[in-house]
Amino acid sequence: VEIIVGENDPGLIYDMAINGSGIYFTGEFGSVGDTARNHLAAVNTSGALLPWNPNVGDAVGYAIDLDSSGNILWGSYFASTACGSALGGIMVSINNSASCSVNWTAEANSAIYDIYYASGTNTVYVGFDGDAIGVVTRYGIFALNNTNGSLITGFNAGGGPGNVVYKIKPYGSALIVGGDFANIGGGTYNNIAAIL
Q1: pLDDT confidence of residue 94
Q2: How far is it, in rounded angstroms, from Cα 178 to Cα 32?
Q3: Do residues 131 and 137 make contact, with C-beta atoms less than 8 angstroms apart?
Q4: Handedness of CA 101, 87, 164, 185 (dihedral sign)
Q5: Checking DSSP bridges between strand 187-188 and strand 183-184, what pairing results, if any?
Q6: Which of 94, 112, 156, 165 is 20 to 30 A from 189, comparing alpha carbons?
Q7: pTM across the whole model
Q8: Rounded CA separation 180/166 (Å)
Q9: Rounded to whole angstroms, how far apart are CA atoms 134 and 8?
Q10: pLDDT tens digits, residue range 11-66?
């Protein structure tokens, strides 16, 4: 299967997620084949472009995951529109139907680098390089309720200014996080740690 991405731009893919026969991907591109797709697109397993087109404009995407309903959880450095709607944030849940719609948005103050969806608790864990989600301080990682995108205030990994979380993986009841930090989860760690 050959998928030609970004004929006239970098064509870089930063993350992807697979749901049945749909392959969703995000990155730095403006087309798939000769069809316009701005930084977020989907193809089937034969490489054919799907009609789903959220058209996020100039917002380069770094992170993508799928929830248990097949909604696309997407994070970027900045975002202004998706599916024809104005956005209030750079962390977004988008319906996967051909006529896509935005389910919710959340406003972090810097780039989103990873998203992990925990189906058991319907929680979205987000790694980023900022220090706030909305008006609430969070360093490097935060958690959202996937029902409406609200911040889960009971989850706070601590840390301090400058913390960046690039990767989040589950391990039992813990999260293994990797990035650029010296303190997280109440302890001193060098760039990788398990947090509860």
Answers
A1: 94
A2: 31
A3: yes
A4: negative
A5: antiparallel
A6: 112
A7: 0.93
A8: 8
A9: 36
A10: 899 999 999 889 999 999 999 988 999 999 999 999 999 999 999 988 899 999 99
* HEC secondary structure over the chain: CCCCECCCCCCEEEEEEEECCEEEEEEECCEECCEECCCEEEEECCCCECCCCCCCCCCCEEEEEECCCCCEEEEECCCCEECCEECCCCEEEECCCCCCCEEEEECECCCEEEEEEECCCCEEEEEECCCEECCEECCCEEEEECCCCCECCCCCCCCCCCCEEEEEEEECCEEEEEEECCEECCEECCCEEEEC
Dihedral pair phi/psi, residue 82, rounded to 5°: -160, 135
Amino acid identity of residue 157, one-letter, is: A
Length of the chain: 196
CA distance 74 to 129: 16
